[in-house]
Amino acid sequence: MATADPLYVWTLYRDTRQRIVDLLTDDAWEVALPACPLWSVRDVVAHMTAVAEDWVAGTLTVPPSDIETASQIARFDGKDTTAVLTAWDAAAAELHRLAEQGTAAPLGDIVVHEHDIRGALDAPGARTDPAVAQASDQLLNILDTPVPLRVTVEDGDYRSGPHDGTEIGLRTTRFEVLRWRTGRRSRAQLAAMDWSADPAPLLEHLYLFGPTDTDLTE
């Protein structure tokens, strides 16, 4: 994919955010997230709100450290759900302003967390949304492997690693890329993907975070 226009990225952010808000029934907020042990839906919404605020302020570390993430969640301790969503509204409006000035919104974070929330609430959906395509494209373009790898998805393929050597192939989907690149799959699940050869040299280089200690089935 070509570099996306910031206003287009903003529309993907806006639409993803709205889908998340639509999932937030009164009963949803305290549900635990299997994809994010020790977090509830409320925690992840607080985190996404704080990410938006910190992006606008120019203070966000990418990716956030564990200490920074804990601080982001704590920022909304004692605030009711309406106050959290109001803060996210305000931050999202500022993200739109930045997009008009040429700075893209932090899309990848909320795309990943939308599906964390969907998994917790047993509400799968939006797996082929353009936001997933955009986030997976970014994740594959920064993939760095010690041996040649070709990842084939629904609408194309991506190559990483050195030019010399025997290439290993992986057939997968953009949704699965989103999940395994961000640590939502176990080592056993990574090894069991559709590889053309033994993936052992690659497995520890596939993810930015994680992987999970146990299989995560979605």
Overall description:
GO terms for molecular function: metal ion binding. This protein is of the alpha+beta class and 218 residues long. The chain folds into 2 domains: 6-121, Four Helix Bundle (Hemerythrin (Met), subunit A), CATH 1.20.120; 130-205. Helix content is 48%, strand content 7%. The protein contains 8 helices and 4 strands; from the N terminus they run ααααααβββααβ. It has helices at residues 6-23, 41-57, 66-74, 81-100, 107-121, 130-141, 174-181, 187-191, and strands at 149-153, 156-160, 168-171, 194-195. Strands 2-1-3-4 form a 4-stranded mixed β-sheet, with no helix packed on it. A hairpin with a 2-residue loop joins β1 and β2 (156-160). 36% of the residues are buried. The model has no long low-confidence stretch (mean pLDDT 95).
Comma- or semicolon-separated keywords:
alpha+beta, 218 residues, 4 strands, 7% strand, 48% helix, 8 helices, Four Helix Bundle (Hemerythrin (Met), subunit A), 2 domains
What is this entry, summarized?
With 218 residues, the protein is an alpha+beta fold.
The biggest sheet, with number of strands, parallel, antiparallel or mixed sense and barrel status, is:
4 strands, mixed
Give Rg in angstroms.
18 Å
Any low-confidence stretches, pLDDT <50, length ≥5?
none
Number of domains: 2
How many beta-strand elements? 4
Number of helices: 8
CATH fold annotation of the largest domain? Four Helix Bundle (Hemerythrin (Met), subunit A)
So what's the overall shape?
globular
Strand order of the biggest β-sheet? 2-1-3-4
Helix content: 40-55%
What is the CATH architecture assignment of the largest domain?
Answer: Up-down Bundle
Beta-strand residue percentage: 5-15%
| Structural class category | alpha+beta
Q: What is the H level of CATH, i.e. the homologous superfamily of the largest domain? A: dinb family like domain
Write the H/E string, N to C: HHHHHHEEEHHE
